[in-house]
Design a protein that fits this description.
Elements: E1 6-13, H1 18-27, E2 36-41, H2 43-50, H3 55-58, E3 63-67, H4 74-82, E4 89-94, E5 98-99, H5 104-109, E6 117-125, H6 132-141, E7 147-149, H7 154-157, E8 168-172, H8 173-178, H9 190-200, E9 204-214, H10 221-237, H11 239-242, H12 248-264, H13 270-289, H14 296-302, H15 306-327
Parallel strand pairs: 1-2, 1-4, 2-3, 6-9
Antiparallel strand pairs: 4-8, 5-9, 6-8, 7-9
Length: 328
């Protein structure tokens, strides 16, 4: 697989020094990346981090491209990053996902020996300092067994057939270009929307469990609500993909399994807080599914992505003004 060249695209926003550790690990891969492209939101934040460092000498060939916070969009920004690469494979990562070893790229590329595989995504291991509930979430969503997923798995897996995470995922460039990349404007879930399109087209999504990154978050209940509100919005905006494929059953299975996990490890005091966060996730998700019934001020209070809405509403206002002008 060493002949398969992949460029790595990392989205950054207010990165800290941990970014250097991740870049150092990418240099140690058994399969070397073609290029490492930083697609950065908010130029001043990254400039402050890099100030006084010889990053160009430490990471030869590193490319940096900037977008403003108002311009950032999960789909369009990644498409812009992809336009800076000509590699046959694209690996998208986030700044807080660190390679667990030197075999990440090698393991991400192996599944593409099967020409029907369009995307592979990595296993996310919990950080050492994460809570027990977050550790279980990683175990539940990222088991140690690899799996190829296609249309034939919809009856068994439901929405998990489309599950894929751009925290660390590799895309076959020919399929990516043929699909037009990610949907340009989406509040969230650009990876699953893309994966669903590939599955519907007869392609496969591969969970590469031996490709491992360290990535976990202990979000507050408020942040869980906001993230799941955006998740609900993305599913409401794409009924052609998500309608008829329920995710509620998987959510219930996760909650039950985590409570048993916490109980068996004597983490009884963590259970109430975990259940509060679960309730916040569910409420946020339900509100997101029904966002069209909400006033704008509530949407801005509930969302984790206010700039997305401001940009969307500005565009709608401009269209309205244009229609009025054309009537004259």
């Amino acid at each position: 697989m060493t002949e398969r060249v992949a460029d790595i695209i990392i989205l950054t926003y207010k990165p800290d020094k941990e970014l250097f550790d991740h870049l150092d690990m990418l240099k140690k891969q058994t399969v070397k990346p073609g290029k490492i492209i930083l697609m950065n939101t908010g130029e001043p934040y990254l400039s402050r981090l890099l100030s006084g460092t010889d990053y160009a000498g430490r990471y030869p060939g590193l490319e940096i491209h900037h977008v403003s916070e108002m311009e950032f969009n999960h789909g369009k920004t990644r498409n812009q990053a992809a336009s800076h690469s000509e590699a046959p494979f694209l690996v998208f990562m986030t700044q807080d996902a660190g390679p667990a070893d030197g075999h990440l790229l090698e393991e991400l590329l192996k599944p593409f020996e099967d020409q029907t595989v369009s995307v592979s995504y990595a296993r996310q291991l919990p950080r050492e300092d994460c809570s027990a509930s977050e550790r279980y979430n990683r175990i539940f969503n990222y088991p140690d067994e690899e799996r190829s997923k296609g249309q034939e798995d919809l009856a068994e897996l439901g929405i998990k057939t489309f599950f894929c995470s751009n925290v660390c995922a590799c895309y076959r460039r020919s399929d990516f270009d043929a699909a037009g990349g990610f949907v340009d404007s989406t509040i969230f879930n650009e990876d699953m929307i893309y994966a669903a399109g590939q599955v519907r087209a007869g392609k496969k999504i591969y969970y590469a469990a031996k490709a491992r990154v360290r990535h976990s978050h202990d979000y507050s209940a408020k942040k869980q609500f906001k993230r799941n509100f955006d998740l609900g919005v993305s599913q409401a905006d794409h009924p052609e993909i998500f309608s008829g494929v329920s995710s509620v059953g998987e959510g219930k299975k996760l909650v039950r399994g985590c409570v048993v996990y916490l109980f068996s490890r004597g983490k009884l005091l963590e259970i109430p807080g975990y259940l509060v966060k679960c309730a916040a996730r569910y409420l946020g998700y339900r509100r997101g599914l029904n966002y069209r019934k909400l006033k704008r001020e509530k949407i801005l209070r509930f969302t984790a992505s206010p700039n997305y809405w401001l940009r969307l509403w500005d565009a709608e206002s401009e269209k309205g003004a244009l229609k009025e002008y054309e009537k004259r």
